[in-house]
Amino acid sequence: MASVLVTGSADGIGRETAAALAAADHRVVLHARSEERAAQARAAVPDAAAVVVGDLASLAETKALAGAADSAGPFDAVIHNAGVWGRGRARSTTVDGLEQIFQVNVLAPFILTALMARPGRLVYLSSGLEARGRVDFADLQHERPPWDDMQAYCDSKMFDVVLAFAVARLWPGVTSNAVNPGWIKTRMGGSGASDELPAGADTPAWLATSDHPSATVSGRYLYRREELRANSSAYDVAVQERLLESCASLSGVELPR
């Protein structure tokens, strides 16, 4: 039995992943951004061991969440599933004045990774759209007009892969990988998506718990349990280091070396 934290597990792929892990008799801790969402998560996955609460669009709450999660641990694996996409919406900033997509999708998992006790395995949910991501450290917050919500999302998913690869390189004792779950029928993916929830949850749950040799590699980008070639920028150590530096500067948190 493994102990696993799944962020963003009140609905969608996160909830499906948590439910699948619980059904396989693993110890699962859920995460939601509010008490109301926590109640929904608990109702959906009643066999979960606990629910931790924290809004990833707040630096203060994300830092507090790291402590709350550690108190609910220890964990063999953490699945960084939570994410947002302001599809069709104007650029939005958080309480910290940061662009919301970047803060929730990239900065929050960086903070949790840096502050939480190291698990044996880390899984970062990316997207096939990471292939369209661009590296522009001069405009991480997408302040330069015109605003493009699709590009902001693609960039964030690319940086999730960059983060996973950076952690794999710096923490050789931890298995760290990124996952493209596919185009899944969720609130974010939409009803026109091609795949059902179990397909999106399968690879993250497998990476978090399986002892199969293919599940215990590190620094990989996977889809349907198979390795894919990620955005070329993800393999660039200079890009990895620049992302870690940028996240540290924005959050006030350093990734331990």
In short:
This protein has seven helices and eight strands.
Could you explain the architecture of this structure?
- The protein is of the alpha/beta class.
- It is built from seven helices and eight strands; from the N terminus they run E-H-E-H-E-H-E-H-E-H-E-H-E-E-H.
- It has an eight-stranded mixed beta sheet with strand order 3-2-1-4-5-6-7-8, with helices on both faces.
- The longest helix has 22 residues, at 149-170.
- The radius of gyration is 16 Å and the shape is globular.
- The two termini are 29 Å apart.
- 49% of the residues are buried.
- The mean pLDDT is 94.
CATH superfamily: NAD(P)-binding Rossmann-like Domain
CATH architectural label = 3-Layer(aba) Sandwich
The residue ranges in which pLDDT falls below 50 over 5 or more consecutive positions are none
User: How would you characterize the largest beta sheet?
Assistant: 8 strands, mixed
| Helix and strand composition category | alpha/beta
Sheet-strand content, in percent, reads 5-15%
Termini separation comes to 29 Å
CATH class: Alpha Beta
Strand order of the largest sheet: 3-2-1-4-5-6-7-8
Count of structural domains: 1
Q: Please give the number of β-strands.
A: 8
Cα radius of gyration in angstroms: 16 Å
SS summary, helix count = 7
Question: What are the key terms here?
Answer:
257 residues; 8-stranded mixed β-sheet
Task: Produce the secondary structure layout.
Layout: E1 3-6, H1 12-23, E2 27-32, H2 35-44, E3 50-53, H3 59-72, E4 77-80, H4 100-115, E5 121-125, H5 149-170, E6 175-179, H6 197-209, E7 221-223, E8 226-228, H7 237-251
Parallel strand pairs: 1-2, 1-4, 2-3, 4-5, 5-6, 6-7
Antiparallel strand pairs: 7-8
Helix pairs in contact: 1-6, 3-4, 4-5, 4-7, 5-7
